[in-house]
Write a structure and sequence with these properties.
Blueprint (H helix, E strand, L loop, with lengths): L2 E2 L8 E5 L3 H12 L5 E6 L36 H7 L14 H21 L2 E6 L4 E7 L2 E6 L2 E6 L1 E4 L14 H5 L5 E5 L3 H13 L1 E5 L4 E5 L4 E6 L14 H11 L7 H16 L1 H7 L4 H8 L8 H15 L9 H18 L13 H8 L4 H13 L2 E5 L14 E5 L29 E3 L14 H20 L7 H6 L1
Parallel strand pairs: 1-7, 2-3, 2-8, 3-4, 8-15, 9-12, 9-14, 12-13
Antiparallel strand pairs: 5-6, 6-7, 10-11
Bound molecules: flavin-adenine dinucleotide.
Amino acid sequence: MGSISLHAAGQPKIAVIGAGPATVYLLYHLHMLALSDVELDIFEASSQVGCGHAFSHETSFPGLLSNLHPDDIPPLLLDFGEWNHTCGDHRNYPLLTVLPRALVGKFLEANFNALIEILWQRNVRVTVHLDNPVTRISESEKGCQLQTGGVWYIGYRAIVNNAGLTNSMSQSPYPLKPACLTGKSHYTIFGSSLTAVDSILTIAHLNGYFTDNSKQVIYSPHREYTIKVLSPSGVFPSLWYPSSHQARIMAFMKSKLPAKFEHFEALYEAVCEPAFAHYCPQVYKQIASMKFKQALAFLTNTSSQCDAKRKLQCELVAYSRAKHDQYWHWHWQEILDAFLSLVETLYANVAYAWHSEFKDFPHSLVAKALGALPLENAYKLWALLESEVLRVERGCFIPPSRSQDSSDTFTIDCRGISPPPLKQRTPRLPPLSEGSLTSHEHLYVGSPHQRSHHAALPGLDVCDRLNRQIASKLVKTFDSNTPHLSLMNIKNV
Ligand SMILES: Cc1cc2nc3c(=O)[nH]c(=O)nc-3n(C[C@H](O)[C@H](O)[C@H](O)COP(=O)(O)OP(=O)(O)OC[C@H]3O[C@@H](n4cnc5c(N)ncnc54)[C@H](O)[C@@H]3O)c2cc1C
């Protein structure tokens, strides 16, 4: 098996696995921190750069929405507003509260290309290897190396694993279109997360159309068919909320941080409850005596007998009334989101002991609470429920295998992924599992889904945060004026 070192000896070499959104943020922070004079090899399994899974062209039939408002995209080289005006697709999506997936993907792709250009100008020699899935990584005295397509690439001083959500981790139904184009009469969807919502809407768009007569959205199917959603919660995620206040809420919480905290619940009491009391007093009154998990179940309506239709109705009514409410600007989801982001930040740096606390962390409730269902999608779901094309049932159901589908039924598994067990502190590397890095000193993990733990829902904000930290470490390591050290030397420093 051949091995190649692509570049001239001398400059430090860094390898990056994956060219998705996490890598766009890595490049951005390397640029902001003025990294220079290194070789950067980026290996990407697909033929697309920038968009990754969530925002790829295939994943997103034009109507599918992200949960991102332009203000929710952490800063990048290009300004979204300016880019969208000149190169984006703004004429097609003038009135949406959130951005279509495809548009976010194009924006990330444009940033990726612009960043590579600008890095080259500073002698960061970036090479992008498309259609090159990395299958193995390892470490030896000569440095780190990785294998792709039977070839070893050698001599890296660091590897950044930004491989994101890999097929072996998810039972992802994406890309949705082929799954939804089966022309069956009955679709059964397991789970009621945002993935389920995407699946429902893709099926609905392919089999009918929505009209908005300014009073309500109405669904007209082209043919008779049904969609049955089966999920433990029996409700859809909460209505989308802007995240514009997150920094302010986090600052408030930080001001309440106790010098020492014993466990997660104590931290919840110390920082999150006061934030609820301060920013959402009406909500606080209802959850004041509850523990974190109870409060979460209460807020997401998953502990009550509230059904999907009723919850949607309550949220849409509350949405239209809230505009006149003094608390309109403060959403309980923002507070939870800020709290969990704070936990996660501290978690990584300070509170390793908390890992044990998270053994039964209610990830599905968090997903339900922070899932952020775009308003436009909520109206469409309402129309589908009204038309009786869509039905939601609560309960614990196990999806049958595809082969068990009857000739008229199609099953889509949208139960999503749970974070791996906490004991797996070291980063997971599927599908790179055969390889082994003997120490993980030179392996950085910047994809939220590749990390062994996340408390909040991982989005572009997490990609930004993790890759800022990695970029800063890389710059410190490679911009120090120390001579080129061998790996063994680095370990002994
Ligand atoms: C269906 C879905 C919808 C989402 N919607 C949103 C949203 O609306 N807003 C939001 O903020 N977040 C959303 N997310 C979260 C989203 O995953 C993150 O925001 C972000 O896109 C993760 O980026 P990433 O680069 O870490 O991973 P990915 O997007 O998974 O990209 C990883 C890249 O690595 C490549 N790759 C994988 N394995 C290898 C390998 N072995 N070798 C080489 N290359 C490899 C892949 O081809 C891909 O291009 C969504 C996630 C999913 C799954």
